[in-house]
Design a protein that fits this description.
Layout: E1 5-6, H1 11-14, H2 21-24, E2 53-56, H3 58-63, H4 69-73, E3 115-119, E4 122-123, E5 147-153, H5 158-161, E6 168-174, E7 180-190, E8 198-209, E9 212-223, E10 226-227, H6 232-235, E11 252-254, E12 264-266, E13 275-276, E14 282-283, E15 293-295, E16 297-311, E17 314-331, E18 335-336, E19 346-348, H7 357-364, E20 370-373, E21 379-389, E22 394-413, E23 416-435, H8 440-447, E24 459-461, E25 464-466, H9 484-491, E26 498-519, E27 522-541, E28 563-581, E29 586-597, E30 601-615, E31 618-629, H10 633-637, E32 638-644, E33 647-648, H11 653-659, E34 666-667, E35 670-674, E36 682-696, E37 699-715, H12 718-725, E38 732-734, E39 744-746, H13 768-779, E40 792-795, E41 797-817, E42 820-837, E43 844-846, E44 856-866, E45 869-878, E46 881-882, H14 890-898, E47 909-910, E48 913-923, E49 927-934, E50 962-971
Length: 972
């Protein structure tokens, strides 16, 4: 069988799948379970072939070699490509990055919040820690041991399921009616000397109990971290020029001028070789791959049960699972800034006393020395500025506990199937910073000798420093490395910010389905239902990691932000679905759903699907539907989120002239993001049309064209805000943006210059181009740009639209011979269009073939089985696409040009990448042994100069050849 089998129509099934009498005319209905498939609520009518659906069976899951659902879904073509899906490879130790240890699957690259995740057809609580502001279901919390199969419907499905099914539905179906006991043990690792080991133990028991059928499962998984330093091609930077000015261990020194030119030199005790900058400076440099963690450490444990019991004509079904995941994530060491968050903190000249007199005199020669005031109000006579980051990487530990309980009743009343259930699903996460996070105020007190032994900052009165409790400590010297007493002083400034989140879903639903009436010789079937749902989410960081207006939005700690949010909503929905077979060859699915939300309003979404079988071997199919995504609770309820926002000067020339010296590059300043309860729902219109052709019972070909028109996308738009500020003075602020207002924060000194009419940047009617000219004369800055300050305040809004279209191809051919069976299967996705408007512009950008948007994705699998032996080879292909050259600095482009890596247009492509997965196994009487080798030929990921990692960690991975050995024992 194909690893990702399209459930299209074979010759044997073609005469059965789309007739209304498939179950109505069974002679013994008591032996047949009337089931539904994803995308429909009508029991007993198989609409699977009417829609392009991918089904992963338990056998295919076993042979995939995956240890987690995230690993499994990364092999599905519909969830690959673009920026939607993410795993722990994207986790970081900053509070607002992708949550550590968590993962999400996204269909068609539209984002995880546009993919509805279901378990047994019902919703799951989202992670309380959003990815940015997108809420998502953490698929690492779903126990793989409990999964019987997975159905992937990559088509709009809001007419059936309501919100979030913009790109489609992934339905994880739990094991049911399992009989027996099995224990599975597996171990996996790479073939390198480093240890990326992963261990998995799961147990399943199915038996009759308490008068019904009980299935119990338990799963434990443990995985080591994987670091960039563990591979030769990621250990060193791909570009020497891809450095940061902020080194760790020893600082750079602001040497000649702190106001113009800002020339720097490296400290004499620099731990690495000096780098010559584009300004001919000799500095200590930092490369992010020194501390880059490519896969975070992860431990998960889960358990649960599925229970079913009959009470006469009524069946009671209950499923429950609980999971706990623990992860540790690492990010680069935090930058060290001044107390007001500007670069270049001051230290006394006395910090240079650690060097010999000759070295110190050399450093002091021509160094810019000036008096400065400390935070206690004390003046230091002689000081200078430095650039640095802390030595220890930022490190956080995250624990997530999730549980889900669904209990319902079902039965048959006058030939109509009915079902009702309640759902309670909750996800709770706790985060704690365990290393690399330092208090900005205590740090500055330490470097100026103003920190007390009790960890408090001294007071300065009557020209004397004093401590209320404890004693005054010595000064911390940032230039003195490897000294235990000095390191102990720094340890006094460490902080442990925390973050707690909770997400809950309460739901009740009821549905009925059955035969509505006869239509000629056919029978029209229908389903009707209602749902009531309440969702709550809170994300509460500790006070020391929050930005607060009363403190000029300065977070107490360096390099660690937070997202404070709380929201809840109630919703009810009504749906109806009709199955209308006009003839034996032509049938329709018609559905519609009305949803009403107590926060943003109501919406109605219809769907029409058809299938036509002109001959038994061929089915033509198509569908049209609308879908919607309600603004996530985080997007509606975030009160203040510290993050960065990108503005694109290539999308707006007016913005480029004022903020990018006329160039078309991208910048990412620090911003404060606000939620917006006035957001509209994102809306989508989807179309799918294709065919399934089975010329023989052993051959199946499916081709489906699909398209999504997605509007009112929710995001922040820094480019548009900068553009609006050109004419709207209320968005322009010298210094911090006042509490309650939004807009752009400029350096305070910008208000010291005026345009030709004497107007400052804050005045209505001011000419910003003339103010820029005046600023260049006044300040003589390194860059002729309006000087942005920090913490611009921007609000989430409905920013734009995108259109995505493509073709899915599925092919399977089985060859039966006397010795066994050979099958060949191909699954491929060809993206024809991925167009969206650039933020802050009406200009449409075509993403297909650009950075991280491959045009073609495919899996080719060859499988051989003979008696109890089976083996397969799977080639996983990702097409080439453009490198992210536009995001590089000028010095990076100069180096690439010198290396002859760019074409005549100044561009380059990331090469196509194909890896091979080998699987071999044997089924004994009471056990199974299975070996999987991923990336069989140990192919390194293609070089991507546009990534600081040197490769694209979303579409490729750097683990290299790795294996998983699995042993399953079946007890009698």
């Amino acid at each position: 069988m194909s690893l990702f089998k399209r459930n299209s129509i074979t010759l044997a099934l073609a005469s059965l799948c789309f007739t209304s009498s498939i179950f109505a005319q069974q002679t013994d209905e008591q032996t047949i379970e009337r089931v539904t498939v994803t995308g429909s609520q009508i029991k007993g009518v198989d609409l699977e072939g009417m829609q392009p659906m991918v089904v992963l069976s338990s056998e295919e899951i076993k042979n995939s070699g995956a240890s987690t659902i995230a690993e499994l879904m990364s092999q599905v073509t519909q969830t690959r490509g673009g920026l939607g899906s993410f795993t722990t490879s994207e986790s970081g130790a900053t509070s607002t990055s992708t949550p550590a240890g968590q993962a999400a699957a996204s269909l068609r690259g539209l984002g995880p919040s546009s993919t509805l995740t279901l378990i047994n057809g019902r919703r799951v609580a989202a992670s309380s820690f959003a990815s940015g502001t997108q809420n998502f279901v953490d698929i690492n919390s779903i126990p793989l041991a409990a999964i019987e199969k997975i159905e992937v419907l990559a088509s709009g499905a809001s007419a059936i399921y309501g919100a979030d099914a913009v790109a489609g539905v992934i339905n994880y179906i739990l094991k049911k009616d399992y009989q027996g006991t099995e224990l599975n043990l597996s171990y996996g690792n790479s073939f390198e000397d480093t240890d990326e080991g992963k261990y998995n133990l799961n147990f399943v028991l199915g038996t009759e109990a308490l008068g019904g059928q009980l299935t119990v499962f338990a799963d434990y998984f443990d995985r080591n971290s994987f670091n960039a330093q563990d591979r030769s091609f990621t250990k060193k930077p791909t570009l020497v020029s891809n450095y940061s000015y902020l080194p760790k261990d020893t600082p750079n020194i602001y040497y000649l001028s702190s106001y113009s030119g800002t020339e720097e030199i490296g400290a004499p005790n620099c731990k690495t070789a000096f780098v010559t900058t584009e300004y001919d400076e000799e500095i200590c440099a930092y490369y992010h791959n020194e501390d880059d963690e490519l896969i975070s450490e992860l431990e998960s444990a889960s358990t649960g049960f599925i229970f079913s019991r009959e009470f006469g004509d009524t069946v009671w079904n209950t499923d429950f699972f609980y999971s706990r995941t623990k992860s540790i994530a690492v990010s680069s060491p935090a930058p060290i800034n001044r107390i007001d968050d500007t670069e270049g903190p001051f230290v006394p000249v006395s910090t240079l006393d650690i060097f010999d007199n000759e070295t110190k005199d050399t450093l002091l020669y021509d160094m810019w020395i000036e008096d400065y005031q400390t935070q206690t109000g004390r003046w230091v006579d002689e000081g200078f500025m430095f650039d640095a980051r802390f030595s220890n990487p930022r490190t956080i530990a995250v624990e997530t506990n999730a549980f889900r309980l669904v209990s319902g009743l079902s039965g048959v009343y006058h030939d109509w199937d009915w079902e009702t259930a309640i759902t309670l699903s909750k996800s709770e996460s706790e985060q704690e910073a365990i290393a690399g996070i330092y208090n900005r105020y205590k740090y500055h007190a330490a470097i100026n000798g103003e920190l007390c032994s009790d960890g408090k900052i001294a007071t300065y009165t009557d020209a004397t420093l004093s401590c209320t409790d404890g004693s005054l400590l010595n000064s911390y010297n940032p230039f003195l490395a490897g000294d235990s007493a000095n390191d102990a002083l720094l340890a006094k400034t460490q902080e442990i910010p925390t973050r707690n989140g909770e997400s809950t879903v309460y739901a009740w639903d009821a549905r009925i389905s059955g035969q509505l009436f006869e239509f000629g010789e056919q029978v029209v079937s229908a389903a009707f239902g209602a749902e009531v749902r309440k969702e709550e989410i809170t994300d509460t960081p500790s006070v020391n990691s929050r930005a607060q207006a009363e403190n000029d939005y300065l977070v107490d700690v360096f390099g660690f932000g937070s997202s404070l949010s709380a929201a809840n909503r109630q919703q009810f929905g009504l749906f109806a679905e009709l199955y209308i077979p006009l003839t034996d060859q032509l049938e329709f699915q018609v559905a519609g759903r009305y949803d009403d939300y107590d926060d943003f309003g109501d919406t109605f979404n219809p769907k029409i699907g058809f299938s036509y079988r002109p001959i038994d071997e061929l089915i033509l199919r198509g569908s049209w539907s609308t879908s919607f995504r309600a603004p996530s609770l985080t997007q509606a309820g975030v009160k203040l989120r510290t993050t960065t926002a990108t503005y694109d000067c290539g999308a707006n020339q007016a913005v480029a002239n004022l903020y990018c010296e006329g160039f078309g590059d991208e910048r990412s300043p620090n911003v404060l993001e606000l939620g917006n309860r006035s957001l509209l729902a994102e809306e989508s219109e989807s179309v799918s049309v294709g065919f399934a052709y089975s010329p023989t019972i052993d051959t199946t070909l499916t081709v489906d064209y699909w398209q999504f028109k997605h509007e009112d996308l929710i995001d922040t738009d820094m480019t548009a805000t900068l553009n609006a500020a050109i004419s709207d003075h209320s968005l322009r602020h010298c210094g911090i943006v006042p509490d309650g207002e939004t807009g752009i924060s400029y350096e305070e000194d910008l208000c010291l210059v005026t345009d030709n009419n004497g107007l400052t940047v804050e005045d209505p009617g001011a000419n910003l181009s003339e103010i820029l000219d005046a600023w260049v004369i006044f300040d003589v800055p390194r860059y002729a740009e309006l000087p942005l300050y920090r913490d611009h305040v921007i609000q989430l809004q409905n920013t734009g639209k995108q259109t995505v279209a493509g073709i899915d191809l599925g092919f399977e051919h089985i060859i039966n011979v006397n010795m066994g069976r050979l099958s060949i299967a191909l699954d491929a996705t060809h993206y024809m269009k991925f167009d969206r408007n650039k933020p802050g512009s009406d200009k449409i950008e075509e993403l297909i073939g650009t950075w991280r948007y491959p045009e073609n994705i495919a899996n080719l699998r060859i499988n051989w089985s003979q008696d109890n032996f089976y083996a397969s080879l799977t080639a996983q292909y990702t097409a080439s696409y453009a490198d992210d050259i536009e995001g590089l600095r000028g010095r990076n482009l100069d180096e690439l040009d010198a290396l002859s890596k760019l074409d005549s247009n100044g561009q380059r492509d990331v090469n196509a990448w194909t890896t091979v997965r080998a699987n071999i196994g044997y089924d004994f009487d009471n056990m199974n042994v299975n070996l999987t080798v991923n990336n069989l030929f140990d192919k390194a990921p293609p070089v991507a100069y546009g990534s600081s990692r040197g490769f694209d960690s979303i579409n490729h991975n750097a683990l290299g050849a790795n294996y998983k050995l699995s042993f399953t024992y079946f007890f009698n």
